[in-house]
């Protein structure tokens, strides 16, 4: 009887909830489009150029952060002085996760190890690199080609850089595109490169064009103990696949371990490398990027316990990562507007089930729908819209329909 009552209440909630925002729901792309493009200042005083270009028929919005004098004179950046695309700085190109949080936050904007930061926005409504959803990245081939062509054809028009020093970073869904499509299909265009795959990874989904180049690419896989269930399977598969590619090219175990490393020591959920949150966790990894994949000591400052800070453990013999728990949901929202439905058993008969809709990227605007059994004889139900940052901002509806 109780289950029927709760289900009926949830149906009533479902019919009620959409009316609150009907006609106002915007796609991830529409929300990011509200953020003005142009020139701004990076956290380290560098300049940021935010603009949109067309690559193979796809609209690619991008941000480039570098010292002003490294921008091409025609870029429109104040202080731009470069007259040739041939520069001395390296480039770290970041692909955000589903929803675009890391494009908005731009965690690699500060110059590290003479490397400028670049972030690209996925060219679709959901802001999913590779399109599709979960591990099915249906536009992976097209998007990987677009990333390659942006670096090769657009970047020389924007800033002066050393084309032999281009590295990459993936975050969540961006790591899926990187590991599944970009590395196997495009890495021959970036020899002696480095890739940091944060909270995501899968085995190559296309043929490996140049195994020798892939084998000599510096790759680091970073996860957490409570990674998403979906990725708890695909990340170890990715680790094993790339290790096997290196071995097939004659690299010894020691050589492989010097090039390919893996870690999931921190407690925490998806991308919560600092044990605190998604955005702050990603920033933690990117703030120590040069330490991890550009010849540093492998120490990540601020990484969550119980890690001692050093994350560069060789992959050989460490392919089978140990996970604890993890959410049973697909990679469907990096955090900017990523939504999720959660069914929880609260362990309390008075609050048996809870349906939750959350904006995971910003707790200050997180919303929550709750169905509760209040534990009294009337079995009263309550639908609550809760502003997470302000517990007083609660609207209750103590009836069957709103």
Automatic annotation (TrEMBL):
Residues 1-16 form the signal peptide. It comes from Periconia macrospinosa. It comes from the Eukaryota. This is Alpha/beta-hydrolase. Keywords: Signal.
């Amino acid at each position: 009887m109780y289950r029927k009552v709760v289900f009926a209440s949830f149906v009533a909630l479902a019919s009620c909830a959409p009316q609150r925002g009907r006609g106002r729901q915007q796609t991830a792309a529409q929300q990011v489009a509200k953020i003005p493009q142009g020139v701004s200042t990076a956290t380290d005083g560098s300049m940021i150029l935010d603009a949109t270009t067309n690559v193979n028929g796809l609209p690619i919005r991008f941000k480039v952060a570098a010292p002003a004098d490294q921008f091409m004179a025609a870029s429109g950046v104040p202080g731009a002085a470069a007259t040739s695309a041939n520069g001395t700085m390296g480039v770290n190109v970041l692909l955000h996760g589903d929803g675009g949080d890391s494009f908005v936050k731009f965690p690699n904007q500060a110059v590290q190890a003479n490397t400028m930061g670049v972030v690209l926005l996925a060219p679709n409504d959901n802001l999913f690199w590779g399109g599709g959803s979960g591990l099915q990245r249906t536009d992976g081939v097209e998007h990987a080609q677009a990333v390659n062509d942006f670096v090769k054809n657009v970047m020389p028009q924007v800033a002066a850089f050393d084309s032999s020093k281009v590295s990459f970073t993936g975050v969540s869904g961006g790591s899926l595109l990187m590991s599944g499509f970009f590395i196997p299909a495009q890495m021959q265009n970036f020899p002696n490169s480095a890739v940091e795959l944060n909270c995501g990874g899968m085995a190559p989904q296309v043929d490996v064009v140049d195994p020798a180049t892939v084998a000599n690419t510096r790759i680091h896989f970073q996860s957490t103990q409570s990674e998403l269930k979906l990725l708890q399977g695909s990340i170890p598969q990715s680790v094993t696949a790339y290790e096997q590619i290196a071995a097939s090219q004659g690299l010894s175990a020691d050589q492989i371990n010097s090039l390919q490393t893996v870690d999931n020591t921190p407690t925490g959920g998806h991308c919560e490398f600092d044990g605190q949150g998604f955005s702050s966790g990603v920033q933690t990894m990117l703030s120590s990027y040069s330490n991890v994949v550009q010849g540093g000591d492998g120490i990540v400052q601020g990484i969550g316990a119980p890690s001692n800070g050093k994350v560069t453990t060789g992959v050989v013999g460490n392919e089978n990562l140990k996970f604890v728990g993890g959410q049973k949901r697909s990679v469907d929202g990096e955090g900017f507007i990523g939504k999720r439905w959660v069914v929880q058993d609260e362990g309390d008969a008075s609050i048996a089930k809870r349906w939750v809709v959350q904006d995971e990227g910003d707790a200050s605007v997180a919303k929550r729908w709750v169905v509760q059994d209040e534990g009294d004889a009337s079995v009263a139900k309550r639908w609550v819209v809760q502003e997470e940052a302000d517990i007083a901002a609660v609207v209750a509806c103590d009836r069957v329909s709103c």
